[in-house]
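Translate sequence into C-alpha cells.
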Amino acid sequence: MPDTTWVAAVARLRARREPGVLVTVATVRGHAPRRAGAKLVVGRTGTWGSIGGGNIEAVAIDRARELIGTPGSEPELMEFALNDKVTNRHGVQCCGGTVTVLFEPLPVVPAVAVFGVGHVGLELARVLARHHLDLHLVDSRPDMLTGERLDVLADAVARIQVHHTPLLPEEVLAELAPGTHVLIMTHDHAEDAALCDAALRTTGLGSIGLIGSAAKWARFRHRLATEGGHDAATIDRIRTPIGITGITGKEPATIAVSVAADLLRSFERDRH
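Result follows.
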C-alpha cells in the first residue's frame, strides 16, 4: 500500500468525524523494517499504511487505540529495541536496530453551525474559519452566500459547508453531527423563533445560542412555552445573550470576537 494513502486516510477520518492517531517512524538507528517517515493511520476499527508490521506495528496500534479512548491525549514518543533479547507483546523482531515512533492524536474537531450570515454572522465566520473545526454557514438569502461575499474565507483552516435554505433553514439541524454548537442570528425574528423551537426538538446538539435583546428573548421564551410546549428546563438550553459577559460593544466585529471567544472556551471544556 503506497505511503500516500495515509493522507487520504486522515481526510477520511475527518470527513466521518471519527478520531484517530497518526503514527510516524521518527528516527531509526541501525536496521529496521521501515525508514524514518513511514506512516500508519489508526482509527477505532481500521488502519491505513504501515510502519513495518510485526511487533512494532501491533504495539503501536494498541497504544494508538488507547490514546483514541483518552480525552485530551497529547502527542508522545515510544522507543522500540528490535532484537531477540527484548520481550515483546506481539513476538520478536530481530532487525538489530532501534526505532522511535511518534504518536499524534487526531481528535474529532468541534463543529459549529451559524444560522444567518449577515454582518455579524460573516464576521463570526471570519474568526472561526481560522480554527480547526467544521463550520456550517446557513442562510435563506442567496445574496449572503455568494462566492464574492465569502471570498474572505478563502484561506480558511476550517472545513466550511455552505447551506442555502430558501424555505426551511431549520431542516439543516437534522443534518448536523452530534455535538454541533448552534448559533442563531438570522435577519428575521420569525426565522429565529422557528430555529429555536426546532433546535430544542433536535437531539444531540451541543450548545444553542441566540443573538438578541432581553425583550426579544422574553417574547421567544413565552412562545416556546405556550405554543411550543417546552418546559422551563428545556428552554434554558438556549443561551442568550451570547458572547463573553462584559464585552458590550455593538460593532459586528466586536460581537463576533466575543462570541468566538466564548465558543473556544466551550471547546476547551469539551476536550477535557
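Note: The chain has a mean pLDDT of 90.
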